[in-house]
Design a protein that fits this description.
The protein is 36% helix and 19% strand. The protein is of the alpha+beta class. The protein has three domains: 129 residues, Jelly Rolls; 51 residues, Arc Repressor Mutant, subunit A; 49 residues, no CATH class. Helix 3 crosses helix 4.
């Protein structure tokens, strides 16, 4: 991935319903042009660079590719949340953050630039904070079951099937998704299905291996969410697709 340094760590099992991963990205050299692809995550990002002081932002769900510049000497420590975290950890709707971000207080959750010294310590500290935010009341079991099915199936189950399995009406599920996340469940599952194809596309498998109806549907969905054809993503010229660059080699 050029000169970029990337590292990730999974949460412990007690946080797995809410946290997908902790990760860090370090760019020790010159500015890096990149494209961020929709991946269905909520990202809490702590960062600083040669041009920006320590700051904290919350990124909502993305539905479009985003051109970004990672400035020289940028360091990022972050948490990628599953959607359930917005309600039960962050305690807010993120419907207004679709394809955008919210700048948070520089001392959010009592973090500061000193926490950039050690990624392992950062992961431990923020895990403790997330556990402190866990609700004392019982979490809605329908929502836990719904998200378990969504993530385990990589977005391949229809809204109708999900509704039947969790005994929650399609209308109520979609109202919840639109009010809480700013996106329909069907659209969100499409993003997860697209993301599940990243590894296949990186390996040059330019045909559908997830739940796409046919080749044309696969190409159409990839183009809609990334702005590029599968072959262009596979080539990953100049490592511009960061999420492809950090995937493990197989």
């Amino acid at each position: 991935m050029s000169s970029l340094i990337y590292q990730s760590q999974p949460p412990d099992s007690s946080l797995s319903d809410f946290v997908e991963s902790f990760w860090m990205l370090d760019n020790p050299s010159e500015n890096k042009e990149a494209v961020l692809l929709p991946d269905g995550r909520i990202d809490l990002i702590f960062s600083e660079s040669s041009t920006e002081a320590f700051h904290v932002v919350l990124l909502g769900i993305g539905t479009l590719p985003e051109q970004v510049t990672i400035a020289e000497k940028t360091k990022i420590f972050a948490v990628s949340f599953n959607l359930l975290a917005s309600e039960y950890i962050l305690h807010q709707s993120i419907s207004g953050l679709l394809n955008t971000a919210e700048i948070l207080s520089c001392d959010f959750w009592n973090f500061n630039a000193d926490d950039f010294n050690d990624f392992e310590k950062f992961c431990k500290k923020i895990s403790v904070k997330i556990k402190e935010e866990l609700p004392t009341q019982k979490i809605d079991e329908r929502k836990v079951r719904l998200f378990d099915l969504i993530y385990s199936s990589k977005g391949s189950l229809s809204v109708k099937v999900l509704s039947e399995k969790v005994v929650w009406s399609e209308r109520q599920i979609n109202r919840y998704f639109n009010q809480q996340f700013g996106i329909s469940l069907k659209a969100y599952c499409g993003i997860l299905r697209f993301r599940a194809s990243f590894q296949h596309i990186k390996e040059g498998k330019l045909f559908p291996e997830e739940n796409f109806s046919d080749q044309s549907h696969f190409i159409r969905e990839v183009k809609k969410l990334s702005g590029f054809l599968p072959k262009q993503l596979s080539l990953n010229k100049n490592d511009r697709f960061i999420q492809f660059s950090v995937l493990p080699k197989k």
